[in-house]
Amino acid sequence: MNEPDPGRDKPGPDARDLTDDDFTAVDPVERHDEPVAGRPARRAPRNPVFVVLAAIVVGALAAGGIAFAMGVFDDSGSVGGSDIGEGERLVQNAFTRSVAGDCLDWPAGNPGQPTAVDCAQKHRFEVAGGIDTSLIPGVEFGEDALWPGPERFAAIRDEQCPVAVDQYLEGRLDPQGRFSVGMMYPSQAQWDKGARQLRCGIQENGADGQPAQFSGRVADQNQSYVWPEGTCIGIDPENRTPTGFPVNCAEPHAFQTTGIVDLAIRFGDRMSNKPWPATGAQNNYLSSICPKQAERFVGGAPALDATTLNVQWSVLSEPSWLAGSRKVVCYLGLPDKRGGFATLVGDAKGGALLINGKAPVPPPAAPPGRALPTPVPLPPGIAPNPDEAPAPAG
């Protein structure tokens, strides 16, 4: 394969009703009952905070480590008190009533207002199961226990939720795909009123590190990273790696997609139980598709040559294949001599393209009547003739 490549690689304690007035936005500095979320490799920005029942701690299983909760290192302090009266009752909502297989959605940034929706509709969390907190050693989930805090909830997620998700999906979570293991847990305000429910589940994170909406059950869809034709994928300026999130092509990006290829057509769908096609077999197949696809995308071979970009594609690893992923993406990009991807700005399809800040310099056209041959080694001491002459006419 061409390098670089973007893809390789039931209810808890009984509860009673509260009015919706208990779920109002509060000041992000003075109040600290916010939804909590984490993401791998980078610190999340501050977001508005809310008095909520449930918070989210997001895991990225493929990253192999704790994705620390949002706000843990913010100087605003994310574990402060609440002005909700101690005598108020615990709320019962879609989160507390959720069981494995339920799908939950909520307004962006406010998981404290979840609603149960049909999984065919857009949602942000698919419940894989609850955690029986009575089985967690010690007394940290006792009646008088202090709120564990985001880091402890993140640790519980990493200890408990991968197993729950694996059982729920019967081992079919693509470890290199777009979905990650998450956990919903009570805010400190709700904890102080007795909430102890925890829910493991699956979600897809957006560019802001928060759960993004997606449609359909995870088990029923392709999980690998693919994007529609013409999508530009952002680039991390520090290490020149793809961010995995679409950006406007006028912004710096790592590559631009030319289309999606379904490997099920050649190697069998997820129900066929056919073995994983080795990387070489995938490369052989995709090398006959992606170049032609790229030429169609940009408007022909000369236009493709003028971009000076390489035709590249992703492949599926064996774990991804066994999880049911079947789709890969073809794209245009260039390696950077410092490692990673060159930074592109502009649309490769007829736009004013820049590569690392410079306009591409197309290769010289072949002289009339002949094609530029592949250079061959010359004997020692013999230099090639630098002059090119057209072939004789006639």
Automatic annotation (TrEMBL):
Residue span of region Disordered: 1-42, 360-394
Biased composition (Basic and acidic residues): 1-18
Domain spans labelled Septum formation-related: 100-330
Positions of transmembrane segments: 49-73
Entries under InterPro entries matching the protein: Septum_form
Keywords on record: Membrane, Transmembrane, Transmembrane helix
Key word Ion transport present: no
Coiled coil: none
Bias (Pro residues) ranges: 374-394
Pfam families the record matches: Septum_form
Superkingdom, natural source: Bacteria
Name under which the protein is recorded: Septum formation family protein
Annotated source species: Gordonia amicalis
